[in-house]
Design brief:
single chain, mainly alpha, Cytochrome Bc1 Complex, Chain D, domain 2, 2 domains, 16 helices, 1% strand
């Protein structure tokens, strides 16, 4: 071989390494190309970039509801001590997560890591254990959680009455008056069946029980509309195309691409390989999640049982699909036919999106892995982190060792780093709006 030919080959290989064009060693089959297409975001010209799920929310695409929800999402008055809002944990500048191991509420750290909510409106279930079956009732639960916002539905309704009456009425019609505090106490909420005796006999529950059924229904209707407004805003928080999506588009058209390097392409090949990386089994579709629940051997103790109790909570939720305040007819099939009380749900938690995964450390529902490399090492070994003694009832475990080589793990991590997807909405939706001031007499505490 002549020196000139050797130099030409060296130059071409060097060029491929620099530009990230389709490497000659990558022979993408039609099946692989189809799989890659299924992972990419659809063209912007689509009617809607993803298939949204909005059971029971008749205002999910109402711009006025989204505007109200935007204000409520950032409003710290919707917490007991006015220090916490939805945006406290779901921070726009951090991909709507918070980059801390465990979420922090008004009192202390919580038991779970904050997941990103980019694209969340496409999910079938909400929270790590799926205890909500739609986005709008999910938005309500942190408000009354004593460790998160720590407020209650009467307090929230009084805030709407004082600061958001005009905005509310423009969407939902006339808002009842709540200034009669004998009928509508400043603080009240119903007790749940699982609440302790102390909670059930607290003044805040007594206040609720003293109200008439009609007045309680009125409060619940306004409270549910608050959740629907927040969900309308969250429905706008969609991922935009990134490097991977541009690469997938070029691949479909058989065009050279500079968007993924050869190492990243090798990682993509592993990602979609059902025998090697096996990632696509759970992380599929444009959001790179099947929205399902899997037991990955990560939990704090045997009481941290995940989906097996989460589905029971969803079924008993007064704001679930079966008890929805929506006027529309909904079959509720997801809820009615959900899998229950099987061992595979024990310690199973929701599969998160991989969009922006390199920007949302730490990882897993307990936030115990600080890097993607650590997560991949765990999956590669396929051994549960928490092993109980022999007297403990055995539990289901979904992982199988991958047995990838060190360089393959690096390739897979390199690909995951390409999944950055900027939020696909105007920037003003990502910042706190001007705070609403009261047009009425200051609300009593």
């Amino acid at each position: 071989m002549s020196t000139q030919i050797r130099l030409t080959i060296t130059f071409l290989l060097f060029t491929y390494g620099l530009t990230g064009c389709f490497d000659p060693s990558f022979n993408w089959s039609q099946q692989e190309i189809s799989l890659i297409k299924s992972l990419a975001l659809p063209e912007p010209s689509s009617i809607h970039p993803l298939s949204l799920s909005h059971d029971g929310n008749e205002v999910w695409d109402n711009p006025k509801a989204a505007k109200l929800g935007h204000r409520l999402f950032f409003d710290k008055r919707l917490s007991h001590d006015e220090t916490t809002s939805c945006a406290s944990c779901h921070q726009p500048e951090k991909q709507f997560s918070d980059n801390t191991r465990l979420s922090k509420g008004i009192l202390s750290s919580l038991s779970k890591h904050t997941p990103s909510i980019i694209g969340i409106a496409n999910s079938k279930w909400f929270f790590w254990d799926g205890r909500s079956d739609s986005l709008w009732p999910q938005a309500l639960k942190p408000l009354e959680n004593p460790n998160e916002h720590g407020t209650n539905r009467l307090n929230v309704v009084h805030i709407i009455d004082q600061y958001y009456r005009n905005d509310y009425e423009a969407i939902f019609g006339p808002l009842p008056r709540f200034d009669n505090h004998q009928r509508f106490p400043l603080n009240a909420l119903p007790a749940a069946e699982t609440d302790t005796l102390t909670i059930k006999t607290s003044q805040i529950v007594i206040n609720w029980n003293k109200m008439t059924t009609k007045d309680r229904d009125t409060v619940n209707q306004v409270f549910s509309n608050i959740g629907k407004s927040i969900a309308a805003y969250e429905s706008l928080i969609m991922p935009g195309p990134g490097r991977f999506d541009r690469f997938a588009k070029s691949l479909q058209k058989n065009r050279a691409s500079t968007d993924l390097s050869p190492e990243e392409q090798a990682g993509l090949k592993l990602f979609i390989d059902d025998q090697k990386g096996r990632c696509i089994r759970c992380h599929n579709g444009p959001l790179l999640t099947n929205h399902d629940f899997h037991a990955t051997g990560i939990f704090i103790d045997n009481a941290d049982d995940g989906r097996i109790s989460g589905i029971e909570k969803a079924l008993s939720d007064p704001f679930n699909c079966l008890n929805t305040k929506s006027k529309s007819l909904i079959p509720c099939d997801e809820l009615l036919f959900a899998k229950r009380k099987t061992q595979e749900l024990k310690h199973a938690f929701k599969v998160p999106t991989l969009r922006n995964i390199s920007l949302t450390a730490p990882y897993m529902h307990d936030g115990n892995f600080s890097s993607l490399g650590a997560v991949l090492q765990y999956y590669n070994k396929g051994i549960p982190r928490f092993l109980f003694n022999q007297s403990t009832r055995p539990f289901h475990f979904d992982l199988e060792p991958l047995h990838l080589l060190p360089h393959e793990l690096k390739q897979l991590e390199a690909f995951l780093n390409t999944l950055i997807s900027p939020v696909n909405i105007d920037r003003h939706w990502l910042t706190p709006p001007l705070k609403k001031t009261s047009t009425r007499t200051t609300r009593k505490k």
